[in-house]
Amino acid sequence: MNIPIVYEDEWLLVVDKPAGLLSIPTPRNESRTLTSILNDDLKEKGAVYRLHPCHRLDRETSGLMIYAKGKSLQQNMMEEFKQRRVKKAYLVFVQGSVAKDSGEIKAPIEGKSALTGYKVIERKKDFTVVNAEPLTGRTNQIRIHFKHIGHPVVGDDRFAFRRDFALKSKYLCLHAQKLEFIHPQTHGTIKLSAKLPVYLKEFLDTHG
């Protein structure tokens, strides 16, 4: 499987995860995940290290994922995420027209505080293109928060009923587009971005 590599050095690997692929196994213990595909490829190449995911993306979400080449580096990067020092930006298509050009969504998720900042990029006929920055790291945060304000992510059938909206998409229109963090080894600033997937480009062209 062709997994685009966005960044690599001797400590880290950052890839552009395709939609529809699990990052890591769920309690069902699936064998085919992004992590297993990457590590199987390394094994075939005779690599002496394994890749360890530093965070996760939902199965339906595409975009940037950081892997560490070693457990201690993984722990260092996970601590950066925990301390909210990793800046994440998602490109999202949400149902309807978001009224404010920018704002913050504050709503607890599973009893824990959660905060998402957003900025409208463009308003289309039936949806809004938004840049969303989760300032906390709750599971499914962006999907839950935009549903909370009445603008669920286009294509979401987990936190919204598709029948409630005329605009349909067989894909979840949510892409982890940008990452910025301090490298745990070199201490330099790393800024990365991932291209918009073909299916999202086609959706924009079709529904522009």
Break the fold down into its secondary structure elements and pairings.
Blueprint: E1 5-8, E2 12-17, H1 34-44, E3 52-53, E4 62-68, H2 71-82, E5 87-95, E6 102-106, E7 115-123, E8 127-134, H3 141-148, E9 174-182, E10 189-193, H4 198-207
Parallel strand pairs: 4-9
Antiparallel strand pairs: 1-2, 2-4, 3-4, 5-8, 5-9, 6-7, 7-8, 9-10
Name of the CATH first level of the largest domain: Alpha Beta
Q: Which superfamily, in CATH terms, is the homologous superfamily of the largest domain? A: Pseudouridine synthase
Rg, rounded, reads 17 Å
Oligomer: single chain
The end-to-end distance, rounded to whole angstroms, is 31 Å
The major β-sheet equals: 10 strands, mixed
- Write the H/E string, N to C: EEHEEHEEEEHEEH
Question: What is the annotated CATH architecture of the largest domain?
Answer: 2-Layer Sandwich
What share of residues is helical? 10-25%
Rough outline: globular
Structural class given helices, strands, pairing?
alpha+beta
Number of folding domains? 2
CATH topology of the largest domain, by name, is Pseudouridine synthase
Beta-strand content: 25-35%
Unreliable parts:
none
Kindly state the number of beta strands: 10
The number of helices is: 4
What is the mean pLDDT? 94
Characterise this structure.
- The chain has helices at 34-44, 71-82, 141-148, 198-207, and strands at 5-8, 12-17, 52-53, 62-68, 87-95, 102-106, 115-123, 127-134, 174-182, 189-193.
- The chain has 208 residues and is of the alpha+beta class.
- It folds into 2 domains: 5-86 and 179-196, Pseudouridine synthase (2-Layer Sandwich); 87-164, Pseudouridine synthase.
- Strands 1, 2, 3, 4, 5, 6, 7, 8, 9 and 10 form a 10-stranded mixed beta sheet that branches.
- It is globular and about 50 Å long.
- The model has no long low-confidence stretch (mean pLDDT 94).
